[in-house]
Amino acid sequence: MTCLLRPQDPKFPEIPLPDGEVVTVGRGPLSKIKDSRCSRTQLEFRANYKTRKVSVKQVGPNESALNGTPIGIGIEEVGKENDSVDILFGEHRYKIVFEGLPPLESIPVKPAKIPKMFSSKDQFKKDGILPKVGEWKSKGDQLHIYTYGDIIRRAKANIAGFDMDGTIITTKSGKVFPKDDKDWRFLYNSTVQKLQTFFEDNDNFKFVIVTNQAGMANGKTSLEGMKKKVEAIVSQLGIPVVVYIIPGRNEYRKPVTGIWNLFVEEYNESVEPNPQESFFCGDAAGRKKDHSLSDRLFALNLGIGFKTPEEFFMGQKPQEFTMPLFQPRKLLDNPPSNDHIQYPDSQEMIIMVGFPGSGKSSFVKSQILTRSYVHVNRDTLKTAAKCLSVADEALKSGKSVVVDNTNPERKDRAEYIKLASKSKVPVRCFKMNITHNQALHNNRFRELSRENPGQGSVPAVAFNTFKSRLQEPTKDEGFTDVLLVNFVPTFSDDKKRELYGKYLLEK
Ligand SMILES: Nc1ncnc2c1ncn2[C@@H]1O[C@H](COP(=O)(O)OP(=O)(O)OP(=O)(O)O)[C@@H](O)[C@H]1O
């Protein structure tokens, strides 16, 4: 009669687990594992021959797994016959084997203790608070909302917000994106219990799930499939919740904070939750392995706490992360000036150079057109030929001209310089002094400031194209001067200023 760990790879030895004894498994002679990422004391096992269960506790810092699900440092899980244990997540797999024991059926089974949460879940049901399924509503194709249970019951509460994919659930298939609406499982074995316990113990918190679902906007995921999946997840959690699904590139999309304001208005009697207590938990946290930073930036934009799933569910310590290169708040707090730029009384041509969204048109409108320059802009004049003919006519009639296009290459600028020299008019170049990341931020700001946010954004590829085509402007092209134009933030109202100061990009 014995219990053992049987390695998937037969070149490693079996590891016996005597009844009731703690067996430490890690790098070393017992397992013959040499991998330095594996601690010498990676896992502690204790087999119970009576119940045929094996407790598995992760002691080492790198992730181990039970049945393919990470365990977490300091966490003890319970495995049974035929369960798999990865000494390191995805590597060094063993099977739990009980040999020479009577078949399981002949062991008398004690009735299972009803976990605390299920009794209260029944209580919720009796009170009519937790229905079988919740209710769906939508704001067009921009936002879908699922409410389950009486979320208003906990009036004026703090908010515990969670991302969904990669935080509460992951794919069953192990793929990055789910194959279909059934391809999901809870991220950790302990996810349901941890959430139930948290909301039982903290009844001054409301549970909100916020999930960006760009896949729905591009047709990769259907709304019906997504609805079924959310209903299944929520009914297994058994906790009153509001789930926000955000397919659009609108003001609800994390890290922009529109969804939080909506929640506070509709489900918290317009009372702002305490930022010290409220928090958001998500896996888009800017760590090396993360695809984005949007969950962390969402929390930062709201001024609330942030936790990764590893921190919330597994009690792990925070890991290093990288912040975005453009910090909008810093710019607003320390704005530069353009005092170095003067304008002559005589005729001239100014050629603008800058990323899309770098603020060329705003600058031209507020600083140059006010001085009666003729505006040459491809967006309004539509063709390059029309731009050149408008510039030529204006120069011939003695007017100053500003060419407000991106003009990345010498050849783009040369055509205008040729026109000006024909009319013997000096040409200056004004280059927008902003980074790629700030231009992307401006582009998103422009998109969100529109009446129909999410429409008419310049695609990211246009920024890369500008960058790769850019030839730095120099005087030898025929300019009398090349000046850098700083981005001096100016807003028509405080709401716009506040929006600009938030992190708007996902990384
Ligand atoms: N000085 C500024 N202060 C605050 N916001 C600004 C400023 N300049 C531009 N913006 C905002 O940045 C966004 C992009 O600006 P703008 O449209 O002027 O850029 P652009 O370089 O002309 O873009 P494109 O080449 O794509 O037409 C707009 O939403 C605009 O309101």
Automatic annotation (TrEMBL):
Compartment(s) where it occurs, according to its Swiss-Prot or TrEMBL record: Nucleus
Which InterPro entries does the UniProt entry name for this protein? FHA_2, HAD-like_sf, HAD-SF_hydro_IIIA, HAD_sf, P-loop_NTPase, PNK3P, Polynucleotide_phosphatase, SMAD_FHA_dom_sf
Sorted alphabetically, the Gene Ontology BP terms of this entry are: DNA repair
The record's section on Gene3D superfamilies has: 2.60.200.20, HAD superfamily/HAD-like (3.40.50.1000), P-loop containing nucleotide triphosphate hydrolases (3.40.50.300)
Claim: Hydrolase is one of the keywords in the record: yes
CC annotations in GO: nucleus
Q: Does the keyword Methyltransferase apply?
A: no
Keywords from UniProt, A to Z, are: DNA damage, DNA repair, Hydrolase, Kinase, Nucleus, Transferase
Which Pfam families does the annotation name? Answer: AAA_33, FHA_2, PNK3P
One of the entry's Gene Ontology molecular-function terms is: polynucleotide 3'-phosphatase activity
PNK FHA domain: residues covered: 3-71
Q: Which PANTHER family match?
A: BIFUNCTIONAL POLYNUCLEOTIDE PHOSPHATASE/KINASE (PTHR12083), BIFUNCTIONAL POLYNUCLEOTIDE PHOSPHATASE_KINASE (PTHR12083:SF9)
**Protein name as catalogued:** Bifunctional polynucleotide phosphatase/kinase
Q: What organism is recorded for this protein?
A: Orchesella cincta (Springtail)
